[in-house]
Design goal:
about 250 residues; elongated; 6-stranded parallel beta sheet; alpha/beta; 9 strands; 3-stranded antiparallel beta sheet; binds ligand BV8; 10 helices
């Protein structure tokens, strides 16, 4: 018997073959990465949604690069946390496991996750607006102004800004994984940003048992089957223990 998880969840978590997870900024919070809408989510009193857009970038590329360079610095100084590592174990355990992330901080990959669908891009990558040449890890501190490509074009972070399309392959595979999953976890996300925020409901509408792991209620809390209130870096390792998740080489 567990005081955190229902018997239904534990039984399903032991037997499921198709599991999908959606993560948001909350999963990186325990690594020390500020969330978007948390108390420390506003940077220099500016709402990230005012910075994370092509319009904001074209209006003031230096300011937007300064924000991303600050975030790159934060991410380079932190480590993945037990929540990230628990998801790596889940990926090894389940026959069909899909990790869908809205996070751009690369921490899932650094923790060892392999099958990751990055819906909103990755701040370790940048590309030229003009010739689309990709660059790994540009640091704007090397440039008094926004970095330029050798073709003269402006270089931007490889992230999906508000008003921009998500990468078609990733969102298609994510929706497919949500629809086919028997068990779907929504972890550390307000589920307010679309279309990512609709994936838990898409899973639910296609028969998945949907579990939210979050210290606070969200817009989907009343719709999912089970809400586990707590920090993902604490809850996920407890879930692993509760279902005696050991490395399962026989996929
Ligand atoms: C699109 C990358 C359409 C950048 C991000 C007007 C015009 C155009 C579009 C729209 C519009 N109005 C609305 C929209 C749709 C818009 C949208 O959803 N807006 C919202 C605000 C309503 N979406 C878009 O614009 C998307 N594109 O719709 O394109 C289109 C169609 C055709 C043609 C052209 C265009 C693009 C959305 C992607 C935006 N980019 N990030 C960057 O990061 O710099 S979004 C950003 O929010 C991050 O990716 C973040 O992950 C994501 C979601 O936030 P959360 O992850 O949930 O984080 P948050 O801080 O909100 O919450 C943290 C949660 O964790 C909380 O619940 C907290 O309780 C919990 N928590 C805290 N600590 C812990 C914890 N949980 C567990 N453990 C802990 N320890």
């Amino acid at each position: 018997m567990s005081d955190l998880f229902s018997e239904k969840l534990l039984t399903l978590a032991r037997q499921a073959r198709r599991v999908a997870v959606l993560t948001g900024a909350g999963v990186s919070a325990e690594s020390g990465v500020p969330t978007f809408r948390g108390e420390n989510g506003i940077w220099r009193k500016m709402d990230p949604q005012e910075l994370a857009s092509l319009t904001a970038f074209m209006r003031n590329p230096e300011l937007v690069w300064e924000w991303y360079n600050y975030r790159k610095k934060v991410v380079n100084e932190v480590q993945p946390n037990p929540g990230h590592f628990a998801l790596v174990m889940m990926e090894k355990y389940y026959a069909n496991f899909t990790l869908i992330t809205q996070n751009v901080d690369d921490l899932h990959r650094r923790a060892g996750s392999e099958n990751i669908l990055e819906l909103h891009g990755n701040i370790t990558r940048s590309y030229c607006l003009n010739c689309k040449t990709y660059y790994s890890d540009i640091k704007v501190t090397e440039f008094p102004q926004a970095p330029r490509c050798q073709c003269g074009g402006l270089i931007r972070p490889d992230v999906v800004w508000f008003g921009e399309m998500l990468p078609q392959r990733e969102i298609k595979l994510a929706a497919e994984a949500a629809r086919k999953s028997e068990l779907f976890f929504s972890i550390g996300t307000t589920a307010e940003v679309q279309p990512a925020g609709s994936l838990p409901i898409e899973a639910l509408e296609n028969g998945a048992y949907v579990v939210e792991i979050n210290p606070d209620p969200t817009v989907i809390s009343d719709h999912v089957h089970e809400c586990v209130r707590g920090k993902s870096g604490v809850i996920l390792p407890k879930l692993i223990d509760a279902i005696q998740l050991e490395r399962n080489d026989l996929k």
